[in-house]
Amino acid sequence: MDPLILSRMQFGANISFHILFPTITIALGWVLLFFKLRYNATGDSAWMRAYFTWVKVFALSFAMGVVTGVTMSFQFGTNWPGYMQKVGNIAGPLLAYEILTAFFLEAAFLGIMLFGFRRVSNRIHTLATVLVAGGTTVSAFWIIALNSWMQTPAGFEMRDGVAHAVDWWAIVFNPSMPYRLVHMLLASGLTVSFLIAGLSALRYLYGDRSESMWKALRTGVFTAAILIPIQILAGDQHGLNTLEHQPQKIAAMEANWNTGPNVPLVLFALPDEAAKENRFELAIPDGASLVLRHSTSGVVPGLNDYPGNHPPVFPVFWGFRIMVGTGLLMLAVSWSAAFFLKRRHSLPRPLAMLMVPMALSGWLATLAGWYTTEIGRQPWLVTGVLKTADAVGPVAGSHVALTLAIYLILYLFLLIAYLGVLVHLALKAAKDGDNSPLPGVMKTAMSQPAAGE
Amino acid sequence: MTYDWPTLLPLIFAGLMGLAILIYVILDGFDLGIGILFAAAEDTEQDTMIAAIGPFWDANETWLVLAVGLLLVAFPMAHGVILTALYIPVFVLLVGLILRGVAFDFRAKVATERKHRWNRIFFLGSVIASLAQGYMLGVYVLGLDVGFGGMAFGVLVAFCLAAAYAAMGAAWVIYKTEGELQRKAVRWLRTALVLTALGMAAVSLATPFASSRIFDKWFVWPSMLYLSPLPILSALLFLWLWRQTFHLPKPDDRHALTPFLTLAAIFALGFAGLAWSFYPFVVPDKLTIWQAASAPESLAIILAGTVVVLPIIIFYSFYAYRVFGGKATDLTYD
Question: Is pLDDT above 60 for B87?
């Protein structure tokens, strides 16, 4: 088989599996800090129980993120040597800064965060939580900067066919970077709040009415209810930014074949790239023009302007719709749950049952969104600079196919094990309720035998 | 005095990368080694052994990310050439690292009846990762030769490195535990040292015949004289450590850290020898560090960050090790 498509599938599989876990750890670090600070302020041990339940999920997700991340750092070289050869001068420093400023910070203080609460003072333990949460966010900052630069490159010049940095500020804060960063951080927040709300709802369904369950449930539901409208707004702004800098991606997202005014908003269609038309189209007249140009006569770019230079329409069109659809479902579920928790101080059973599968809605929306934006960048690896086909390595297709197959089996196995452990942890917490054994958190340092004693 | 930055920067980065690899091999060496020794340990001992590395392994592995990252960012040409040539071994290494990395957490979080399955996965992942690293080193030493001879040599180095990691793991267990497990670890160390010594002797004999380039670098007068302290010192340290295994553990747990430090010194000496064998090439006989390096302005901006951040990293890594100093007894993964 063709090494190019196999390498793309392999990288896609790896990065899709990888992104699931940072999406959780980025925001979960801050939620853990919130639990910790509430405990520090109130002394209510239910907050600490919530902390210890979720710090386990954090540790597991972090380990999954680390090992799949190590895989990524090797794959740049094994599968895409052309990438670093062409734009290594830009991508290199950004990756180096991620490792130096984020990875070590997270890794060193994660140990203290997970195992240190009896070895360091409460204040140092809180600080370790802050540093780990901060580290995950800084890591997201650098990697989003690099990804955005690949989408909307700036601040460089080409010399002898190789990109050289001219203005680092322009490289890091390239045109799409602030929008993508905000969009991704909010996506992480939503993923985690729905995960917490969903697993807490599972505990609720199993009869758990403990204080720590309520605290986690409320935290999840209210965070989701607050974040989702902000995310819809941020997503809209991100879309307008894409319209300005990558119009061909917008054309594919809207499955708009011809540039012009009065473009409808397509709700459902099966885009047919060969015939350059949509089958079974269901659309709102003038909708796309209104959304993108705020006027029915607004001109929306069409695929006809980019012959041979636009992404495949079907996956981009549907990736976008799955993301938006999931987002709207998140809005409905989180707001109804917030209403019942706030006004009725209860959770109706059907709603709780809906919230359990919604625990993974953040993953679905994040993946669909990333597929939209990454496939939407094709045929370019770095827009206007390097085509994906020119970066692939000289490895035989059979090698790539073999490793791809094993990666897929491994990832499926790990995903099942991961989800199994999440459910196991939730049910164990439901059974223990407020009687779960609580590791002692002391206000004094070194209250247990430690270094040198 | 003016500095010739385009000459100097690649040299500095080669040094930094070497340092990152050395730190990685020493640090992840002991936790990979503990994974290898899992096969010889009992259930409760396994828990203690995990407790001895739990807070550290993640940071240890980050040094590998830094080393590959530096190769990637400072020598992008070499990164592509080396990793495409080692495509399958790299893949095997990654599978091993993935399995053992997640096993740390899974073994503590799954229902009790599934724990032994993850213990086995932890052992397998550690063995696979160690062997893959050794194999890659062997093939790399021979200039990325993937013929039959190169593969055989790679397998030899793979077993040698796995034995050396097991020795590191045993030394770390001696430092972090007490009682029966500590005495057991001394015996593990002795066995692992013998295997490592056999492996190293075989590798040392095979290398000059396998690679005339390395032969020429070592067995030419007078560099033979200058270099002689490296193998002699290594051999002496080896012998001394082997004799020590008959006297450990000592009363009041004195010198519990000595085996680990001695092994680290042997690793450093071996590494210096390797570095000498390769200089100035980053891809043996194909690319020198200057040919493979990124643009000076990109290296400069990474260096600026590294100079500021690396001391901080080293500082807080020491802090983390200090927090979890002493014997690993009451630490639990839960």
Answer: yes
Q: ipTM score here? A: 0.81
Cα–Cα dist A190/B96, whole Å = 32
Q: Which residues of A touch B66 (CB under 8 A)?
A: 99-100, 103-104
Domain that holds residue B201: 7-323
The answer to whether residues A66 and B58 touch, using CB atoms and an 8 Å cutoff, is: yes
Q: What is the pLDDT of residue A228?
A: 93
Choose among A97, A164, A417: nearest Cβ to B106: A417
Q: B84: which chain A residues are within 8 Å (Cβ-Cβ)?
A: 77-78, 81, 393-395
For chain B, the domain total comes to 1
Query: Is B328 inside any structural domain?
Result: no
Nearest by CB to B294, from A74, A92, A395: name it: A92
**Chains A & B: contacts with CB separation below 8 Å:** 222
Of A109, A111, A417, the CB nearest to B324: A111
Distance from CA of A417 to the nearest CA of B (A): 8
Q: Could you report the per-residue pLDDT of A152-164, keeping only the tens digit for each?
A: 998 888 888 888 8
Q: What is the pLDDT of residues A109-119, one digit of tens each?
A: 888 888 877 77
Contact predicate A151/A87, CB 8 Å: no
The backbone region for A286, taken as left when phi is positive above 0, alpha when psi lies in -120 to 50, beta otherwise, is left
Interval A65-86 mean pLDDT: 82
Burial class (CB in 10 A: 0-12, 13-18, 19+), B54: buried
| Closest chain B residue to the Cα of A453, Cα to Cα | B326
Q: Identify the residue among A11, A103, A143, A422 best suited for mutation to test binding to B, counting B beta carbons within 10 A and taking the highest.
A: A103
User: Is residue B143 one of the residues assigned to a domain?
Assistant: yes
Do A99 and B61 lie within an 8 Å CB cutoff?
no
Q: State which H helix or E strand residue A382 sits in.
A: strand A380-382
**Distance of alpha carbon B316 from alpha carbon A135, whole angstroms:** 14
Contact residues on chain A for B330, CB-CB shorter than 8 A? 118, 448-449
8 A C-beta contact, residue A27 and residue A130 = no
Phi, psi (rounded to 5 degrees) for A185: -60, -40
DSSP state of A339: H
Whole-number pLDDT of residue B213: 73
Question: pTM score, two decimals?
Answer: 0.86
- Residue A364 is predicted with a pLDDT of 94
Element spanning A387, H or E? strand A386-387
**Residue B330: inside a domain, yes or no?**
no
Asked if B80's CB is within 8 angstroms of A77's CB, the reply is yes
Is residue B131 situated within a structural domain? yes
